[in-house]
Amino acid sequence: MQRPSLTGGFRDAPKDAAFAFRAVMNTMAKPGEINSVTGAEPPAGLSIAAGVVLLTLCDPETPVYLAPRFDLPEVRDWITFHTGAPFVAASAAHFALGTWGELPLGDFPVGSAAYPDRSATLIVEVDDLRSEGATLSGPGIKDSAALSLPDRAAIQQNAALFPRGLDFIFTCGDRLAALPRSTKVS
Amino acid sequence: MTQIEQDKNAPDTVMSDYNFAYLDEQTKRMIRRAILKSLAIPGYQVPFASREMPMPYGWGTGGVQVSAAVLTPDDTLKVIDQGADDTTNAVSIRRFFEKTAGVAVTEATAEASIIQTRHRIPEAELREDQVLVYQVPIPEPLRFLEPSEVETRKMHELEEYGLMHVKLYEDIAQHGAIATAYAYPVKVEGRYVMDPSPIPKFDNPKLEMAAIQLFGAGREQRIYALPPYTQVVSLDFEDYPFEASKADHLCGLCGAEDSYLDELIVDDEGGRLFMCSDTDYCVARQAAGHRGSDAAPTLEGVA
Protein backbone atom coordinates (compact mmCIF):
# COMPACT_ATOMS: atom_id res chain seq x y z
CA MET A 1 0.00 0.00 0.00
CA GLN A 2 1.23 3.45 -0.92
CA ARG A 3 1.64 5.75 2.10
CA PRO A 4 3.30 8.89 0.74
CA SER A 5 2.73 10.79 3.97
CA LEU A 6 5.16 8.48 5.78
CA THR A 7 8.09 9.20 3.46
CA GLY A 8 9.98 12.32 2.53
CA GLY A 9 11.16 13.30 6.01
CA PHE A 10 14.72 13.88 7.19
CA ARG A 11 16.85 10.73 6.89
CA ASP A 12 19.14 11.71 9.75
CA ALA A 13 17.01 14.23 11.64
CA PRO A 14 19.60 15.72 14.05
CA LYS A 15 22.14 16.43 11.33
CA ASP A 16 19.74 17.30 8.48
CA ALA A 17 17.88 19.69 10.79
CA ALA A 18 21.16 21.25 11.96
CA PHE A 19 22.27 22.04 8.40
CA ALA A 20 18.79 23.24 7.47
CA PHE A 21 18.54 25.50 10.50
CA ARG A 22 21.90 27.13 9.77
CA ALA A 23 20.68 27.92 6.24
CA VAL A 24 17.44 29.38 7.62
CA MET A 25 19.25 31.29 10.38
CA ASN A 26 21.70 32.79 7.89
CA THR A 27 18.87 34.01 5.67
CA MET A 28 17.01 35.51 8.67
CA ALA A 29 20.21 37.20 9.88
CA LYS A 30 21.11 38.45 6.40
CA PRO A 31 17.92 39.52 4.60
CA GLY A 32 18.31 39.18 0.84
CA GLU A 33 20.69 36.20 1.05
CA ILE A 34 19.38 33.16 -0.80
CA ASN A 35 20.38 29.70 0.45
CA SER A 36 19.73 26.15 -0.77
CA VAL A 37 18.47 23.41 1.53
CA THR A 38 17.96 19.67 1.17
CA GLY A 39 16.53 16.75 3.08
CA ALA A 40 12.74 16.92 2.63
CA GLU A 41 10.52 15.49 -0.10
CA PRO A 42 7.11 16.97 0.65
CA PRO A 43 3.97 16.03 -1.31
CA ALA A 44 1.50 17.83 -3.55
CA GLY A 45 3.37 20.74 -5.02
CA LEU A 46 5.05 21.84 -1.81
CA SER A 47 8.58 23.04 -2.49
CA ILE A 48 11.54 21.22 -0.97
CA ALA A 49 12.51 24.40 0.88
CA ALA A 50 9.04 24.80 2.43
CA GLY A 51 9.14 21.16 3.50
CA VAL A 52 12.58 21.60 5.05
CA VAL A 53 11.47 24.69 6.99
CA LEU A 54 8.42 22.84 8.34
CA LEU A 55 10.50 19.83 9.41
CA THR A 56 13.14 22.05 11.00
CA LEU A 57 10.95 24.43 12.99
CA CYS A 58 7.52 22.87 13.57
CA ASP A 59 6.42 20.39 16.22
CA PRO A 60 3.38 19.82 18.49
CA GLU A 61 4.04 23.22 20.15
CA THR A 62 3.61 25.25 16.95
CA PRO A 63 0.12 25.57 15.45
CA VAL A 64 0.25 25.84 11.65
CA TYR A 65 -2.11 27.62 9.25
CA LEU A 66 -2.47 26.21 5.73
CA ALA A 67 -3.68 28.47 2.94
CA PRO A 68 -6.46 26.86 0.83
CA ARG A 69 -4.16 25.72 -1.98
CA PHE A 70 -2.10 23.65 0.45
CA ASP A 71 -4.92 22.61 2.75
CA LEU A 72 -5.06 19.13 1.21
CA PRO A 73 -5.30 15.76 2.97
CA GLU A 74 -1.86 14.65 1.73
CA VAL A 75 -0.22 17.87 2.98
CA ARG A 76 -1.98 17.65 6.34
CA ASP A 77 -1.04 13.98 6.71
CA TRP A 78 2.58 14.66 5.82
CA ILE A 79 2.94 17.56 8.29
CA THR A 80 1.09 15.64 11.01
CA PHE A 81 3.21 12.52 10.62
CA HIS A 82 6.57 14.29 10.45
CA THR A 83 6.05 17.18 12.87
CA GLY A 84 2.85 16.62 14.89
CA ALA A 85 1.94 20.29 14.49
CA PRO A 86 -1.77 21.06 14.94
CA PHE A 87 -3.71 22.98 12.27
CA VAL A 88 -5.43 26.21 13.25
CA ALA A 89 -7.01 29.39 11.89
CA ALA A 90 -4.70 32.24 10.91
CA SER A 91 -5.32 34.16 14.13
CA ALA A 92 -3.80 31.38 16.27
CA ALA A 93 -0.93 30.38 13.97
CA HIS A 94 2.76 30.34 14.85
CA PHE A 95 3.61 29.31 11.31
CA ALA A 96 1.69 29.66 8.08
CA LEU A 97 2.18 28.13 4.67
CA GLY A 98 0.79 29.50 1.44
CA THR A 99 1.22 31.66 -1.62
CA TRP A 100 1.30 35.43 -1.11
CA GLY A 101 -2.19 36.04 -2.51
CA GLU A 102 -3.80 33.38 -0.34
CA LEU A 103 -2.33 34.35 3.03
CA PRO A 104 -4.69 36.61 5.03
CA LEU A 105 -1.91 38.94 6.24
CA GLY A 106 -4.14 40.98 8.51
CA ASP A 107 -5.28 37.95 10.52
CA PHE A 108 -1.97 36.61 11.84
CA PRO A 109 -0.70 37.47 15.33
CA VAL A 110 1.93 40.21 15.16
CA GLY A 111 2.90 40.03 18.85
CA SER A 112 2.31 42.64 21.49
CA ALA A 113 4.44 45.64 22.43
CA ALA A 114 5.55 43.74 25.55
CA TYR A 115 6.11 40.42 23.74
CA PRO A 116 6.81 41.19 20.07
CA ASP A 117 8.22 37.67 19.65
CA ARG A 118 4.74 36.17 19.93
CA SER A 119 4.13 36.66 16.24
CA ALA A 120 3.66 34.38 13.25
CA THR A 121 6.34 33.34 10.78
CA LEU A 122 4.95 33.02 7.26
CA ILE A 123 6.38 30.48 4.81
CA VAL A 124 5.53 32.00 1.45
CA GLU A 125 5.80 29.86 -1.67
CA VAL A 126 6.92 32.04 -4.59
CA ASP A 127 7.42 31.18 -8.28
CA ASP A 128 10.50 33.28 -8.56
CA LEU A 129 13.24 34.14 -6.07
CA ARG A 130 16.06 36.40 -7.24
CA SER A 131 18.47 38.92 -5.76
CA GLU A 132 16.88 41.82 -7.60
CA GLY A 133 13.81 43.98 -7.28
CA ALA A 134 13.08 45.67 -3.99
CA THR A 135 15.97 47.36 -2.17
CA LEU A 136 16.50 46.16 1.39
CA SER A 137 18.34 47.86 4.23
CA GLY A 138 18.54 47.43 7.99
CA PRO A 139 20.05 44.92 10.44
CA GLY A 140 22.00 42.14 8.72
CA ILE A 141 22.62 44.16 5.57
CA LYS A 142 25.95 45.93 5.03
CA ASP A 143 24.86 48.69 2.66
CA SER A 144 21.86 47.45 0.78
CA ALA A 145 20.58 44.17 -0.64
CA ALA A 146 17.98 43.27 -3.24
CA LEU A 147 15.26 40.64 -3.28
CA SER A 148 12.29 39.89 -5.52
CA LEU A 149 9.26 40.60 -3.30
CA PRO A 150 5.62 39.94 -4.07
CA ASP A 151 4.16 43.11 -2.54
CA ARG A 152 6.27 46.04 -1.42
CA ALA A 153 3.49 48.10 0.17
CA ALA A 154 2.25 45.32 2.48
CA ILE A 155 5.80 44.56 3.59
CA GLN A 156 6.47 48.24 4.31
CA GLN A 157 3.30 48.32 6.40
CA ASN A 158 4.51 45.29 8.32
CA ALA A 159 7.93 46.88 8.93
CA ALA A 160 6.21 50.01 10.24
CA LEU A 161 4.79 47.93 13.10
CA PHE A 162 8.32 47.26 14.46
CA PRO A 163 9.05 45.84 17.01
CA ARG A 164 5.78 44.00 16.36
CA GLY A 165 5.20 42.38 12.99
CA LEU A 166 5.35 39.22 10.89
CA ASP A 167 8.50 37.51 9.66
CA PHE A 168 8.63 35.95 6.22
CA ILE A 169 10.50 33.01 4.74
CA PHE A 170 10.19 32.91 0.94
CA THR A 171 10.61 29.46 -0.57
CA CYS A 172 11.12 28.50 -4.22
CA GLY A 173 12.22 24.99 -5.19
CA ASP A 174 15.13 24.12 -2.91
CA ARG A 175 16.03 27.76 -2.25
CA LEU A 176 14.87 30.14 0.43
CA ALA A 177 15.28 33.73 1.58
CA ALA A 178 13.94 35.53 4.62
CA LEU A 179 12.58 38.95 5.42
CA PRO A 180 12.31 39.83 9.11
CA ARG A 181 10.16 42.73 10.26
CA SER A 182 13.31 44.78 10.96
CA THR A 183 14.14 45.16 7.24
CA LYS A 184 13.31 48.45 5.54
CA VAL A 185 12.05 47.98 1.98
CA SER A 186 12.11 50.59 -0.76
CA MET B 1 44.20 0.79 34.92
CA THR B 2 40.70 1.42 36.14
CA GLN B 3 37.80 2.22 33.86
CA ILE B 4 37.74 5.84 35.01
CA GLU B 5 41.38 6.37 34.22
CA GLN B 6 40.92 4.92 30.76
CA ASP B 7 38.08 7.33 30.10
CA LYS B 8 40.08 10.26 31.34
CA ASN B 9 42.84 9.43 28.95
CA ALA B 10 40.52 9.26 25.96
CA PRO B 11 38.73 12.60 25.89
CA ASP B 12 38.32 12.63 22.13
CA THR B 13 35.92 9.71 22.05
CA VAL B 14 32.56 10.81 20.65
CA MET B 15 29.68 9.72 22.83
CA SER B 16 26.98 7.91 20.90
CA ASP B 17 24.48 7.61 23.76
CA TYR B 18 23.33 11.21 23.32
CA ASN B 19 21.63 12.95 20.44
CA PHE B 20 23.90 15.05 18.19
CA ALA B 21 25.04 18.07 20.26
CA TYR B 22 23.48 16.65 23.45
CA LEU B 23 20.03 18.33 23.36
CA ASP B 24 16.99 16.46 22.06
CA GLU B 25 15.47 17.62 18.78
CA GLN B 26 12.34 19.20 20.25
CA THR B 27 14.44 21.32 22.62
CA LYS B 28 16.65 22.39 19.73
CA ARG B 29 13.60 23.38 17.67
CA MET B 30 12.32 25.50 20.56
CA ILE B 31 15.71 27.23 20.89
CA ARG B 32 16.00 27.63 17.11
CA ARG B 33 12.60 29.34 16.92
CA ALA B 34 13.70 31.72 19.69
CA ILE B 35 16.94 32.46 17.81
CA LEU B 36 15.02 33.34 14.63
CA LYS B 37 12.72 35.72 16.54
CA SER B 38 15.70 37.28 18.30
CA LEU B 39 17.36 37.95 14.93
CA ALA B 40 14.12 39.50 13.65
CA ILE B 41 13.92 41.86 16.66
CA PRO B 42 17.57 42.85 17.33
CA GLY B 43 18.25 43.60 20.99
CA TYR B 44 14.92 42.23 22.28
CA GLN B 45 15.22 39.42 24.83
CA VAL B 46 13.20 36.42 23.68
CA PRO B 47 12.08 34.14 26.55
CA PHE B 48 12.91 30.47 26.03
CA ALA B 49 12.44 27.27 28.03
CA SER B 50 16.03 26.89 29.20
CA ARG B 51 17.00 23.32 30.06
CA GLU B 52 19.10 21.88 32.84
CA MET B 53 22.54 21.28 31.41
CA PRO B 54 25.26 19.01 32.79
CA MET B 55 27.05 22.02 34.26
CA PRO B 56 26.04 24.58 36.86
CA TYR B 57 24.31 27.87 36.11
CA GLY B 58 26.96 30.54 35.72
CA TRP B 59 29.17 28.22 33.68
CA GLY B 60 27.63 29.13 30.36
CA THR B 61 24.47 27.03 30.19
CA GLY B 62 22.78 29.66 28.00
CA GLY B 63 25.68 29.86 25.59
CA VAL B 64 25.97 26.08 25.50
CA GLN B 65 22.28 25.67 24.63
CA VAL B 66 22.53 28.26 21.84
CA SER B 67 25.71 26.63 20.51
CA ALA B 68 24.06 23.19 20.61
CA ALA B 69 21.12 24.50 18.57
CA VAL B 70 23.37 26.17 16.00
CA LEU B 71 26.17 23.59 15.58
CA THR B 72 26.38 21.41 12.47
CA PRO B 73 28.75 18.44 12.07
CA ASP B 74 30.88 20.55 9.69
CA ASP B 75 31.57 23.32 12.20
CA THR B 76 34.85 24.17 13.88
CA LEU B 77 34.30 25.37 17.42
CA LYS B 78 36.38 27.78 19.48
CA VAL B 79 35.55 28.53 23.11
CA ILE B 80 37.06 31.39 25.09
CA ASP B 81 36.70 32.51 28.67
CA GLN B 82 37.81 36.13 29.22
CA GLY B 83 39.74 35.83 25.97
CA ALA B 84 41.60 32.67 26.97
CA ASP B 85 41.24 29.29 25.26
CA ASP B 86 42.93 27.37 28.06
CA THR B 87 40.86 28.12 31.17
CA THR B 88 38.67 25.54 32.91
CA ASN B 89 35.37 26.85 31.57
CA ALA B 90 36.59 27.07 27.98
CA VAL B 91 38.30 23.68 28.02
CA SER B 92 35.32 21.88 29.53
CA ILE B 93 32.78 23.37 27.10
CA ARG B 94 35.04 22.67 24.14
CA ARG B 95 35.45 19.09 25.32
CA PHE B 96 31.69 18.78 25.90
CA PHE B 97 30.98 19.49 22.24
CA GLU B 98 33.89 17.37 21.06
CA LYS B 99 32.28 14.48 22.89
CA THR B 100 28.60 15.07 22.19
CA ALA B 101 28.73 16.57 18.69
CA GLY B 102 32.03 15.26 17.37
CA VAL B 103 32.86 18.68 15.92
CA ALA B 104 36.35 19.91 15.16
CA VAL B 105 37.78 22.40 17.64
CA THR B 106 40.41 25.09 17.34
CA GLU B 107 42.05 27.87 19.28
CA ALA B 108 42.66 29.98 16.17
CA THR B 109 39.99 32.66 15.77
CA ALA B 110 40.25 32.70 11.98
CA GLU B 111 39.71 28.94 11.69
CA ALA B 112 36.56 28.82 13.83
CA SER B 113 33.06 28.91 12.36
CA ILE B 114 31.40 29.16 15.78
CA ILE B 115 33.01 30.93 18.72
CA GLN B 116 31.44 30.65 22.14
CA THR B 117 32.66 33.37 24.45
CA ARG B 118 32.49 34.42 28.04
CA HIS B 119 33.05 38.16 28.54
CA ARG B 120 35.27 39.02 25.56
CA ILE B 121 35.13 39.65 21.83
CA PRO B 122 38.23 38.29 20.02
CA GLU B 123 40.75 40.91 18.89
CA ALA B 124 40.84 39.57 15.32
CA GLU B 125 38.08 40.94 13.13
CA LEU B 126 35.30 38.37 12.61
CA ARG B 127 33.86 37.45 9.21
CA GLU B 128 30.35 37.06 7.80
CA ASP B 129 30.59 33.27 7.88
CA GLN B 130 31.29 33.18 11.63
CA VAL B 131 28.89 33.07 14.58
CA LEU B 132 29.76 34.50 17.98
CA VAL B 133 27.79 32.99 20.90
CA TYR B 134 27.90 34.88 24.22
CA GLN B 135 27.36 33.43 27.67
CA VAL B 136 25.18 35.92 29.51
CA PRO B 137 24.66 36.02 33.30
CA ILE B 138 22.04 38.82 33.59
CA PRO B 139 20.48 39.69 30.23
CA GLU B 140 18.34 42.57 31.50
CA PRO B 141 20.35 45.84 31.39
CA LEU B 142 17.85 47.52 33.72
CA ARG B 143 17.79 44.72 36.32
CA PHE B 144 20.13 46.32 38.86
CA LEU B 145 18.14 49.55 38.61
CA GLU B 146 14.69 47.93 38.70
CA PRO B 147 14.35 44.43 40.18
CA SER B 148 10.83 43.78 38.88
CA GLU B 149 10.52 41.95 35.56
CA VAL B 150 7.01 43.39 35.15
CA GLU B 151 8.45 46.90 35.39
CA THR B 152 11.46 46.35 33.14
CA ARG B 153 9.28 44.72 30.48
CA LYS B 154 7.04 47.79 30.59
CA MET B 155 10.10 50.04 30.25
CA HIS B 156 11.23 48.18 27.10
CA GLU B 157 7.68 48.26 25.79
CA LEU B 158 7.43 52.04 26.21
CA GLU B 159 11.08 52.64 25.26
CA GLU B 160 11.43 54.33 28.66
CA TYR B 161 15.15 54.26 29.30
CA GLY B 162 15.53 57.41 31.40
CA LEU B 163 16.57 55.37 34.40
CA MET B 164 19.69 54.13 32.59
CA HIS B 165 20.73 57.68 31.74
CA VAL B 166 20.20 58.68 35.38
CA LYS B 167 22.52 55.84 36.38
CA LEU B 168 25.21 57.00 33.95
CA TYR B 169 24.70 60.59 35.13
CA GLU B 170 25.16 59.51 38.76
CA ASP B 171 28.43 57.89 37.70
CA ILE B 172 29.58 61.28 36.43
CA ALA B 173 28.30 63.11 39.52
CA GLN B 174 30.16 60.73 41.87
CA HIS B 175 33.29 59.84 39.92
CA GLY B 176 33.65 62.61 37.37
CA ALA B 177 33.30 60.15 34.50
CA ILE B 178 31.11 57.25 33.45
CA ALA B 179 32.62 54.60 35.72
CA THR B 180 30.87 51.64 34.12
CA ALA B 181 33.77 49.58 32.77
CA TYR B 182 32.06 46.38 31.65
CA ALA B 183 28.54 45.31 30.60
CA TYR B 184 28.30 48.85 29.28
CA PRO B 185 24.72 49.40 28.02
CA VAL B 186 24.09 49.88 24.30
CA LYS B 187 21.11 50.91 22.19
CA VAL B 188 20.37 48.65 19.23
CA GLU B 189 19.04 50.19 16.00
CA GLY B 190 17.70 53.10 17.97
CA ARG B 191 15.14 50.93 19.77
CA TYR B 192 16.15 48.43 22.48
CA VAL B 193 18.67 49.07 25.24
CA MET B 194 20.72 45.90 25.51
CA ASP B 195 23.28 44.42 27.88
CA PRO B 196 26.23 43.27 25.74
CA SER B 197 27.09 40.74 28.53
CA PRO B 198 30.02 41.61 30.83
CA ILE B 199 32.49 42.37 28.05
CA PRO B 200 34.88 45.26 28.84
CA LYS B 201 33.69 48.51 27.30
CA PHE B 202 36.87 48.33 25.21
CA ASP B 203 34.97 45.71 23.16
CA ASN B 204 31.78 47.76 22.66
CA PRO B 205 32.81 49.33 19.32
CA LYS B 206 33.37 45.79 17.96
CA LEU B 207 29.67 44.92 18.50
CA GLU B 208 29.00 46.33 15.03
CA MET B 209 30.59 43.44 13.17
CA ALA B 210 30.18 41.16 10.15
CA ALA B 211 29.48 38.00 12.16
CA ILE B 212 26.13 36.93 13.63
CA GLN B 213 26.06 37.50 17.40
CA LEU B 214 23.79 35.36 19.60
CA PHE B 215 23.41 35.87 23.36
CA GLY B 216 22.20 33.04 25.62
CA ALA B 217 21.24 33.42 29.29
CA GLY B 218 20.46 29.97 30.73
CA ARG B 219 19.42 30.76 34.28
CA GLU B 220 17.44 33.85 33.20
CA GLN B 221 15.95 31.99 30.19
CA ARG B 222 16.54 34.64 27.54
CA ILE B 223 18.04 34.65 24.06
CA TYR B 224 18.83 37.82 22.12
CA ALA B 225 20.80 38.60 19.02
CA LEU B 226 22.56 41.09 16.78
CA PRO B 227 22.47 40.34 13.04
CA PRO B 228 25.60 41.42 11.10
CA TYR B 229 26.16 45.17 10.71
CA THR B 230 23.39 46.02 13.18
CA GLN B 231 23.72 49.55 14.54
CA VAL B 232 24.90 49.36 18.15
CA VAL B 233 25.47 52.63 20.02
CA SER B 234 27.02 52.81 23.50
CA LEU B 235 24.92 55.12 25.68
CA ASP B 236 26.61 58.39 26.62
CA PHE B 237 26.17 62.15 26.89
CA GLU B 238 27.24 64.87 24.44
CA ASP B 239 29.65 66.35 26.99
CA TYR B 240 30.75 62.94 28.32
CA PRO B 241 31.10 60.84 25.18
CA PHE B 242 31.63 57.08 25.33
CA GLU B 243 35.28 56.07 25.46
CA ALA B 244 36.59 52.54 24.89
CA SER B 245 39.32 52.24 27.49
CA LYS B 246 42.07 49.78 28.35
CA ALA B 247 45.10 49.64 30.61
CA ASP B 248 47.63 52.20 29.37
CA HIS B 249 50.41 49.69 28.70
CA LEU B 250 51.80 47.43 26.01
CA CYS B 251 51.41 43.67 26.22
CA GLY B 252 54.40 42.39 28.17
CA LEU B 253 54.59 39.23 26.09
CA CYS B 254 53.89 40.29 22.51
CA GLY B 255 54.20 44.07 22.70
CA ALA B 256 50.73 44.70 21.24
CA GLU B 257 49.41 48.19 21.87
CA ASP B 258 45.92 47.68 20.44
CA SER B 259 44.66 44.71 22.47
CA TYR B 260 42.78 44.49 25.77
CA LEU B 261 45.15 43.67 28.64
CA ASP B 262 44.92 41.57 31.80
CA GLU B 263 46.94 42.71 34.79
CA LEU B 264 48.83 39.92 36.56
CA ILE B 265 50.47 40.24 39.97
CA VAL B 266 53.70 38.28 39.57
CA ASP B 267 55.39 38.57 42.98
CA ASP B 268 54.81 39.98 46.48
CA GLU B 269 56.87 43.11 45.83
CA GLY B 270 54.41 44.95 43.63
CA GLY B 271 55.65 43.41 40.41
CA ARG B 272 53.02 43.17 37.72
CA LEU B 273 52.68 42.04 34.16
CA PHE B 274 50.23 43.29 31.56
CA MET B 275 49.39 40.74 28.90
CA CYS B 276 46.82 40.29 26.14
CA SER B 277 43.54 38.85 27.42
CA ASP B 278 43.05 37.23 23.98
CA THR B 279 45.54 34.34 24.21
CA ASP B 280 45.22 33.32 20.56
CA TYR B 281 45.96 36.89 19.43
CA CYS B 282 49.00 37.06 21.74
CA VAL B 283 50.39 33.64 20.79
CA ALA B 284 49.96 34.37 17.08
CA ARG B 285 51.83 37.66 17.45
CA GLN B 286 54.65 35.99 19.37
CA ALA B 287 54.87 33.29 16.71
CA ALA B 288 55.22 36.09 14.15
CA GLY B 289 58.25 37.35 16.03
CA HIS B 290 56.74 40.15 18.15
CA ARG B 291 58.26 40.40 21.62
CA GLY B 292 57.20 42.44 24.63
CA SER B 293 59.40 43.72 27.42
CA ASP B 294 58.53 40.80 29.73
CA ALA B 295 58.74 38.00 27.16
CA ALA B 296 60.97 35.04 27.90
CA PRO B 297 64.30 35.36 26.12
CA THR B 298 64.34 33.48 22.84
CA LEU B 299 66.50 30.42 22.47
CA GLU B 300 67.70 31.43 19.03
CA GLY B 301 71.42 31.03 18.77
CA VAL B 302 71.68 29.08 22.02
CA ALA B 303 71.52 25.62 20.48
How many E strands of chain A?
Answer: 9
CATH topology of chain A: Rossmann fold
Hey, which two chains have the biggest interface? A-B, 40 and 46 residues
Number of strands of chain B: 12
CATH architecture of chain A: 3-Layer(aba) Sandwich
Gyration radius of chain B, in Å: 21 Å
* Beta-strand share of residues of chain B: 15-25%
What assembly state would you assign to the polypeptide chains in this entry? heterodimer
Strand order of the largest sheet of chain B: 1-9-8-5-4-2-3
CATH H-level superfamily of the largest domain in chain B: Bacterial phosphonate metabolism protein PhnH
Give the N-terminus to C-terminus distance of chain B in angstroms. Answer: 40 Å
Shape of chain A: globular
CATH superfamily of chain A: Bacterial phosphonate metabolism protein PhnH
Pattern of helices and strands of chain A: HEHEHEEEEHEEE
Outline type of chain B: globular
What fraction, in percent, of the residue positions of chain A are helical?
A: 25-40%
Rg from alpha-carbon coordinates of chain A: 16 Å
Keywords (chain B): 4Fe-4S, Iron, Iron-sulfur, Lyase, Metal-binding, S-adenosyl-L-methionine
EC number (chain B): 4.7.1.1
InterPro entries (chain B): PhnJ
Protein name (chain B): Alpha-D-ribose 1-methylphosphonate 5-phosphate C-P lyase
Describe this structure in words.
The complex is a heterodimer of chains A (186) and B (303). Chain A is of the alpha/beta class and 186 residues long. Chain A has a single domain, classed as Bacterial phosphonate metabolism protein PhnH (Rossmann fold), CATH 3.40.50. Chain A has four helices and nine strands. Chain A has helices at residues 13-29, 48-57, 73-83, 152-160, and strands spanning 35-36, 64-66, 95-99, 121-125, 134-137, 145-147, 167-172, 175-179, 184-185. In chain A, the strands form two sheets. Chain A has a six-stranded mixed sheet. Chain A has a three-stranded antiparallel sheet with strand order 6-5-9. In chain A, β5 (134-137) and β6 form a beta hairpin. Chain A is globular, with a radius of gyration of 16 Å. In chain A, 49% of the residues are buried. With 303 residues, chain B is α/β, with parallel strands linked by helices. Chain B has three domains: 9-141 and 186-233, Bacterial phosphonate metabolism protein PhnH (Rossmann fold, 3-Layer(aba) Sandwich), CATH 3.40.50.11310; 142-182, no CATH class; 245-291, no CATH class. In chain B, 26% of the residues lie in helices and 17% in strands. Chain B contains seven helices and twelve strands. In chain B, strands 1-9-8-5-4-2-3 form a seven-stranded mixed sheet. A three-stranded antiparallel sheet of chain B has the order 7-6-10, with no helix packed on it. The radius of gyration of chain B is 21 Å and the shape is globular. Chain B: It is an enzyme of class 4 (lyase). Chain B: One of its GO terms (biological process) is organic phosphonate catabolic process. Chain B: InterPro entries: PhnJ.
